[in-house]
Description:
By secondary structure, the chain is mainly α. The chain contains 5 helices and no strands.
Amino acid sequence: MWEKLGQLYEVAMCVRMLARAEQPKSSIELQKVVRQYLDSLGLSTQGMLRNRWRIAANEVAEKRATKTVKTAPGRSMRDRLKAIDGGGA
Length: 89
């Protein structure tokens, strides 16, 4: 969305300000600026609400989780396993 909205500069500035704000003894004002960036870029709950953004479901992961392993008829997964010699002493 940031690229679509032309906010690449804002994203870069947010990263730079965040790096500075994480330093020891950073100013409260700098931390406020970072918070404003996070809100405006939709990186906070408030920002997502204000931008009317929602996180979409990961349909690929859902399909992967519900997908069943297909085996040959009459053969269980256990039947398909075979022992191998590890070559140990």
